Amino acid sequence: MKQRWFAILCVALLPCLLGVSCAGSDKFRGGGNMLGIVQLGPFPKQSAAIGGYNLYLSETKDGPFDKINTEPVLGGSRLMVPYLKPGQVYYFRMTSVAAKDPSRESAPGQVFQRTAAEKAD
Fold first, then answer.
1. CA-CA distance, 15 to 69, in Å (whole number)?
2. Residue of 15, 11, 5, 13 lying closest to 43 (CA atoms)
3. 73 contacts 54 by C-beta, under 8 angstroms
């Protein structure tokens, strides 16, 4: 079951990670070697009031941060963020969303960083 949700999440995130957006922004696909990945998780288990988590990514600690998921990430799951520059530090923050209304989310948590690793073929 968890693997199926992970596959669905990956498919849902693909357009966002490939730079498809209404704003025409291509911020995280600047060309060059984009075969870096960051693995995040497992995410905290969620209570009945929490419907999951939203994740935000930035190339700088102070932002701006861009949301990288289209559906809330479920507690206990892991997430791989592809199409990043290997060796570059990326900054993340996350919020929790209400189970009854996913448009309601908490204030962002602390910023944390991960360095993109070279994707193995």
1. 10
2. 5
3. yes
- List the beta bridge partners of residue 92: 57, 112
Residue-level pLDDT at 98: 95
Q: Is the dihedral of CA 39, 44, 46, 49 positive or negative?
A: negative
| Domains of the chain by start residue, with CATH | 2-118 (2.60.40.10)
* CA proximity to 112, closest of 97, 93, 98: 93
CA angle 59, 35, 88 (to 5 degrees): 30
Least Cα distance to 34 among 118, 93, 104, 91 occurs for 118
CA quadruple 63, 64, 68, 69: dihedral sign? positive
State pTM to two decimals. Answer: 0.70
pLDDT mean across residues, the chain: 79
**DSSP H helices in the chain:** 2-17
Q: Alpha-carbon distance 119 to 31, whole Å?
A: 16
Place of tokens 């309601």: 104
